[in-house]
Specification:
The protein is an alpha+beta fold and 220 residues long. It has helices spanning 3-15, 28-41, 50-89, and strands at 95-99, 102-105, 111-117, 121-129, 135-141, 146-152, 165-175, 178-182, 184-195, 202-206, 209-212, 216-219. The protein contains 3 helices and 12 strands, in the order αααββββββββββββ. β9 (184-195) and β10 (202-206) form a beta hairpin.
């Protein structure tokens, strides 16, 4: 049979008499009709290699599995986003410890946080600097291994209260004669949450400023 005849028979099998442009995607039923049509209308003197049919079936199976996987991933992503929103809103009104090196000092009150002191530390110091990088306060910490809380009452090394504003907080441990920077975890209260419409990332709005949900180390 001529190629044009096979093409015509295949088109008829796929569309069932409807226009060839009615469908933009090849579904499972259409694919099977196509395969049967090819088998019925192939040249008996030049039959198609069975391996070619097997390859077509494998290719369709791969595409079908990929499409199904994409749907499952999209569904899982939506579920995770919903779960993230629920987790975030549940934190409103709670105090958290989050990885941050920024502290906001108010007109009154203090700033609280914590660090994890590594094993072998011979000295640990909290260092607080202002926006220009000038030293405001240096506070020695215990060298006991593990989680250690710290509190800055807002006073400078000279004893006067520092102006309200934003300060940088860092922790330095001396281990074996070398200084090692430690992660500082600042305490703050969650006032609300914000969801980025583009990235769907969740941000916690706290009294110390916005904090990413992934930066939270402890909920109190």
């Amino acid at each position: 049979m001529a190629t044009s005849a096979i093409t015509a028979a295949t088109t008829s099998a796929l569309t069932g008499g409807a226009s060839a442009g009615a469908k933009s995607q090849l579904g499972q039923d259409e694919f099977l009709k196509l395969m049967l049509s090819q088998m019925k209308n192939q040249d008996p003197f030049k039959p198609q290699d069975p391996g070619a049919f097997i390859a077509q079936l494998a290719q369709f199976s791969t595409v079908s599995s990929t499409q199904s996987m994409q749907k499952d991933i999209a569904s899982l992503t939506d579920s995770l986003r919903s779960s993230q929103v629920i987790d975030g809103t549940a934190l409103v009104g709670h105090s958290i410890l989050a990885a941050s090196d920024v502290a906001t000092l108010q007109q009154s009150g203090e700033v609280n946080g914590s660090i994890t002191v590594p094993e072998g530390a011979s000295a640990v110091n909290m260092v607080i600097t202002d926006a220009s990088g000038q030293l405001v306060r240096r506070m020695p910490m215990s060298t006991q291994t593990g989680l250690a809380s710290f509190s800055w009452n807002g006073n400078t090394d000279g004893g006067s209260r520092a102006p309200a504003g934003t300060y940088k907080v860092s922790a330095v441990a001396n281990i074996g004669g070398r200084n090692q920077q430690l992660e500082t975890q600042m305490s703050s209260k969650v006032e609300s949450v914000t969801i980025d419409p583009a990235s769907h990332a969740l941000t916690l709005n706290t009294d110390l400023g916005p904090i990413a949900l992934g930066a939270v180390r402890r909920v109190m």
